[in-house]
Design goal:
Length: 261
């Protein structure tokens, strides 16, 4: 291998990837000097790479210590990959059962703690002519819709407050979310019932019903949701649909280690 070939193989893209790998693997924040030493690069080159990765959200800097860690977007991508590889096939039989029994679109959405968002990971669409386009792997707020509030209502209260403070508006109306004091009773009611039903919060004219999924530690990691056009929704069937959803979320949660207290 020539010197020119070796330089090409250790170009800026490879160096950036090595830096991302280092940040993903270390247990604590790292200084420019230590990162440069690990990568056998000049400190100036390492600093330049860190600044470039910060612009893309892959790296975060602690303003007090000037040390670096994996950024929110790198954490988000890691979470997405783990769900795509580990959960897609596992959730499918449960979603198929829901879809067969209700005849409507259903989906698994994952919670992304790093960005406090949700992302649609697996979906089965309705067989009806009137149905929805469902885009996979795109992050959305947890403040609105059944896909969001079915998770938001079951998060720790401090985490809920931080999310509400983001003030992300409704995708359909542009309205701002209620203040925490107003929203809390609604979230408490959702938690008490075990599921949520929303109307036109994320998609105009859509009814959403969602229930949370918990892992072996009891932490909410996502939800199963059903989406129905409002013109096709029969309010008398809410309890039936909710029971179907709750049964399947509990069954799936059990397969990944959750035990009901």
């Amino acid at each position: 291998m020539t010197t020119k070939d070796a330089a090409r193989l250790d170009g800026p893209i490879v160096r950036a990837l090595k830096l991302i790998r280092l940040l993903a693997e270390i247990d604590s924040d790292i200084s420019i000097k230590d990162a440069a030493s690990h990568l056998d690069l000049p400190a100036s080159t390492t600093h330049r790479l860190l600044r470039l990765l910060m612009q893309e959200g892959m790296v975060a800097k602690d303003p007090k210590t000037s040390r670096y860690r994996a950024g929110l977007d790198l954490e988000r991508l890691g979470t997405l990959l783990s769900y795509k590889k580990g959960f897609k096939d596992l959730t499918l039989p449960f979603l198929q059962k829901i879809a067969q029994q209700c005849g409507e679109a259903c989906m698994f959405v994952a919670y992304l703690p790093a960005t406090q968002q949700v992302s649609l990971m697996t979906a089965i669409n309705s067989l009806h002519p009137l149905r929805y386009e469902m885009e996979l792997y795109v992050p959305h707020t947890v403040l609105w819709g059944a896909t969001g509030r079915s998770i938001l209502a079951f998060l720790p209260e401090e985490e809920q407050k931080k999310i509400v403070e983001t003030r992300v508006p409704s995708p359909t109306t542009g309205a701002l979310p209620p203040a925490w004091e107003e929203l809390k009773p609604e979230l408490d009611a959702i938690r008490s019932k075990g599921y949520v039903l929303t109307r036109s919060q994320k998609v105009s004219g859509a009814i959403g019903i969602g229930a949370p999924i918990r892992n072996g530690e009891g932490r909410v990691i996502g939800s199963f949701c059903i989406t129905i056009p409002e013109i096709r929704f029969d309010p008398a069937k809410e309890a039936e649909l909710a029971t179907l959803l709750l049964n399947e979320t509990r069954a799936f949660s059990a397969t990944i280690g959750y035990k009901v207290p």
